[in-house]
Specification:
By secondary structure, the protein is mostly helical. The chain is built from 4 helices and no strands. It has a domain of 53 residues. Helix content is 89%, strand content 0%.
Length: 126
């Protein structure tokens, strides 16, 4: 190492200047390459974060809509259950003997409610 340093000292000034410029160019090129790589990585990370935020917002909105639809369906199901129970009680009160039969008014009341419900679910919502 000392021999290399002594040999460099003995070189003419023009060669020393050229070596210094060459070393500067090499170090500057490496620094520029590292900076560009870091810049590219930062740009990519920012883009991926923005996409992730958009996907997250869209997913949350879809979940909110699905939850609202589920809640509305539960309310409708509860209403239908109450109507079916009322129809069954009414049939039992009006026709106590026939209700005990296999296919009496209670069965008709329940099937009528189920038909109404099926028809309502097939009609498009407005």
């Amino acid at each position: 190492m000392i021999r290399l340093f002594r040999n460099l000292v003995a070189l003419p000034m023009e060669i020393k200047a050229a070596l210094a410029i060459l070393a500067g160019v090499i170090v500057g090129g490496i620094a520029a390459a590292l900076w560009l790589r870091a810049h590219d990585r930062r740009v990519i990370n920012d883009h991926e974060a923005a996409i992730s935020a958009q996907v997250g917002a869209a997913t949350q909105a879809a979940n909110d809509v699905a939850n609202a639809n589920d809640a509305a369906r539960q309310v409708e199901d509860a209403k239908a259950a109450v109507l079916t129970e009322e129809a069954l009680r009414h049939a039992q009160e009006e026709h106590p003997e026939e209700v005990r039969r296999a296919s009496g008014p209670a069965v008709r009341a329940v099937t009528d409610q189920l038909r109404k419900r099926a028809t309502a679910s097939r009609t498009p919502a407005r």
